[in-house]
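Q: Can I see a sequence and its folded structure?
A: Here is a first one.
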Amino acid sequence: MSLKVSFIGLGVMGYPMAGHLARAGYDVTVYNRTAAKSERWQREYGGATAATPAAAADGADFVFCCVGNDDDLRSVTTGPEGAFGHMQPESVFVDHTTTSAEVARELYEVAREGGFAFVDAPVSGGQAGAENGQLTVMIGGDEAAVERAAPLIHCYARLQARLGDSGAGQLTKMVNQICIAGVVQGLAEALCFAERAGLDPQAVVDVIAKGAAQSWQMDNRAPTMIAGKFDFGFAVDWMRKDLGYVLGEARRNGAHLPLTALVDQFYSEVQALGGSRWDTSSLIVPLRKLRRS
């Protein structure tokens, strides 16, 4: 517990993740672009705040990060006042942002040349998983660095696994998002079909959720889809960002992803309807509009 730990990025995921580290007894320093959120976190969990990513990284044994996208990650690592210029030798930078595999490999090389480790470790489980310490963490990077970080990641993860070298964590997260996109679209179409057929959608779900059609999305999102409530969860803007990484990687590796590309376009329709911040289960909205027309 004498380790010095920093956490960069206190969004809906990073805020509770950093809190779990503090509650586990680690000495945690936080940085967030909006200083007021850092100050609120400090009042809740103790620890310290830093004015820049560089200051957060100064003297830290482990630096954790959860920001928005590739550009945000580059900004807090190698940009002006970025963390990488102040990482100490043998320290470990653990990135929980969902990014491209390309930027993960890029920053891995920069870190290696600087004498410290970079681990890509995107997560799945959403805000509830972060708050409850029940995230699934998909990891890429050097085995020794991953092993060193494992006890700290355990503070907010129910499962963590190293899938390979640098970039493997991000590639695995892409697989995760491909699966989710297809399942949510299928669920949206199924519920619209039930409605059009004159069935009680919730009664139908109560039955089929006990069979082969069951999924996390059905259990957690079917009721809200039926109710038309989308003001929570994983936002459409974030999903389109992730699917952009997926489709970009597919162009590089030659994978054919017709369904994923189609669902990405369906999400663009949701954005056009004003649903950029709606939950990803809002795929049902354009289908219902088609029904009315």
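Q: Show me another, different protein.
A: A second, unrelated one:
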Amino acid sequence: MPSHDFRAPRLFIDAPLCGGAQIPLDRSQSNYLGNVLRLSNGAPVLLFNGRDGEWQGRLCGHKRASGLEVLARTREQDQAADLVYVFAPLKHARLDYMVQKAVEMGASRLQPVLTRFTQVTRVNLMRMRANVIEAAEQCGILCLADVAEPLSLQGFLEQRAPGRLLVFCDEAAEWSDPAAALRQAGEGAPAGAPSGGIDVLIGPEGGFAEDERALLLNQSQILRLALGPRILRADTAAVAALALVQTLHGDWSARLSHR
């Protein structure tokens, strides 16, 4: 990752960013910067919107910080790797953790899928997006991961582009060397990476039903992996699977195509 100033507070702004722009703060942002962080007028703040790179800004206002002045760009906008994290939703705090870690690991899209044994069928997309923004603010990330509407497992499989690799994390698969299997899946592609992007699928903690597993294994571009000899909780499996993909085909090795 490029060098990043972790001492300056960093704020997502849903507005165009350019030198000299004046951006008003909403009540929650003003309270966070002025009352929580106790920043005064003139204090430096890093700004990003997921489109225009990262900018140096400073607080401005009268008695309290009510706006931001955009000064100069500190980093050019980058592109997200074409890595989609597909998952059966979890409950509240564990879903928050999973979303934050998937963003930190470089997922460009978060796709909830509903299966027979999914624990949670209603997903708070606004809360998911808030966790995406928080993770991006804290970790110096410039691209915001998309948050997709939930789909049934069959609906997700039907709308996938045919050239994408589906990494199906299945506890029933052989686990002798998942890294070797993933490496082999990229052989023959440019730079050793699948050219159509990668979807990483983590199912519910109750596992997939047999008909769902059969449906998955019938996909044309699929790699079935077990993540070692131990059964992992879904939020742990997210980090393990994304780390494996990023190491072999992702932006840890600068191999995964960007969108």
